[in-house]
Amino acid sequence: xxxxxxxxxxxxxxxxxxxxxxxxxxxxxxxxxxxxxxxxxxxxxxxxxxxxxxxxxxxxxxxxxxxxxxxxxxxxxxxxxxxxxxxxxxxxxxxxxxxxxxxxxxxxxxxxxxxxxxxxxxxxxxxxxxxxxxxxxxxxxxxxxxxxxxxxxxxxxxxxxxxxxxxxxxxxxxxxxxxxxxxxxxxxxxxxxxxxxxxxxxxxxxxxxxxxxxxxxxxxxxxxxxxxxxxxxxxxxxxxxxxxxxxxxxxxxxxxxxxxxxxxxxxxxxxxxxxxxxxxxxxxxxxxxxxxxxxxxxxxxxxxxxxxxxxxxxxxxxxxxxxxxxxxxxxxxxxxxxxxxxxxxxxxxxxxxxxxxxxxxxxxxxxxxxxxxxxxxxxxxxxxxxxxxxxxxxxxxxx
Length: 399
Known about the structure:
This protein is an alpha/beta fold. It has seven helices and 26 strands.
């Protein structure tokens, strides 16, 4: 068995960022940016008013009340072609460019207007109630960096900088293959010794949440012909993920059957719980990640190993979401395997409190659904008491 950190490093070393593709701006949400987004224009392009009111020379309203003469009007999107001289003002609206000669805006509620006469009751300093050209950004400013997962806010800034298209990493295509005579799809008739398969659906959801495109290869039965035929459907994918069939039982066929068809193993079994029977290798030109069959083991290993691969294929590092937490209950000493305990994790005024569930059987998917994250127990960790500090992993990204 190899340590978790070594397994993770060896897996990640096999992957590099996929090529970029160009997508329309609205399709960029959730994608990983491949090239910088630099402003193609200056915003605002000119000095503009931040309020509805009157464009004035601050010197003319240094002493109030002051009476000015209205010489024009400028709406948003318009422009006043003249120049504001001493004792003059221009009616202006939010977003309109400041006329030449004016250096401030008086709020409309601080004035009394009658015909061309405008009485200012509250003076303003130069620069008041206006936005200078380039206040937001200037042409050439790089506002979004490669490796960023684009949010709604990012789509907004890209649009405002005049980018109708974005260069993003191609979505990873991940072929998912479940194995076992004992599993059937949701909604199918159950035999007396069968269970409903959840792994393929959960992994597909995790893949989508991390920006990938899952390809469901179906369920391979416990015979060489079925496994070989369905695994062949993964050719051309960026990664094949299998669940089950990776242990030491005589019906666990992944290594033997696919080994005869070119599977080159990097490693098999890691020192962790849940998830010991995890394998990684290459089936021809396609990397293959073999996850355990127990549902909790599948998802914990998916979080620890598949998730960072999906991010790496898109040219970014997966957010770690690891925090220091206060232990909410006593724990016994650990053995040589690194433990990942499903836990309730609450954020309090003084930090996080993580309370592992008393039961941790790897078949209990209900506890994974109820958990907020995992408490990490290093190999050979001593007895831990309530109140001790531990490392915790907070769930996110769809898990």
